[in-house]
Amino acid sequence: MKKMTTLLLAVMPFVGSAQEAASSAIYTHQVGAYEIVVLPENQGQGNPSILIDATPEMLAQAIPDGTYPNAVNAFLVKTPAGNVLFDTGFGRNLTRNLAAAGVKPEDIGTLVITHAHGDHIGGMLTADGQRAFPRARLILSDTEKTYWVDTQKQEAATRAFNAYKENVQLVTPGKIEEPAGGDGIFYLAAPGHTPGHIVCLLRSKGEQLLIWGDLAHAMAIQMPFPQVSVRYDTDPVLAAKSRQEILKFVAEHHIPIAGMHVAFPGMGKIENNGKGGYRFIPFSARR
Length: 287
Ligand SMILES: [Zn+2]
Fold this sequence. Notes:
By secondary structure, the chain is α/β, with parallel strands linked by helices. It is built from eight helices and 15 strands. Mean pLDDT is 91; it is low at 1-24.
């Protein structure tokens, strides 16, 4: 008995500190003067049943064990002009992850929502329906607001939008191309997953990164076979068109990507695989 107690005492502090280390571990990536911090909400294994028109041959080749890693992420970007938060995940680990990055909710000056699904706007409100980021200006596309709030009157999106409505900037996203001008954050149209889904190109001091929202949900399949869409896509055909256009763009311009459903660390490079598809090379998770 004595021996067991000793063992427990020896093990428990280790378990405690390991958990603490895991929950406070942050991964950052520098783009010029911008520091990108991944804010993981969830890591898991995906189910191929969400895929549309993935043939048995594609699945056997891309995911021979029948599953693939996936995730839910938000991203914090620290810029010289202030902190920008891209999506809010479920709101599950968000506040704790931001605190680990040294950022309080009131330190977020801009909140960009790539689209209004629940796993992206879940952390916009507190439990009592107030905005979680009291000083943030909300940025989303005009089409996305019209679709979810004005047309669908989707309750969660409407409540989240209304909480910020004094301080909203609706943007009309641009075409998928290198934007003119210098440094900044550029909003580009990537419709299909939702009608107003946007991707966000960050550019600072000659470096770039594309935060691509939900351009892909199953990297292991949708990179080699970008024509495969998922059941969550409002318009799967348009989603595939946007995905192919953007993959071509980032591969040709050597622009790394960050994705809301890309497994930790949620960022990496895209290369043409020479077989009509692409390959994703994640940034090393070791620092
Ligand atoms: Zn999503």
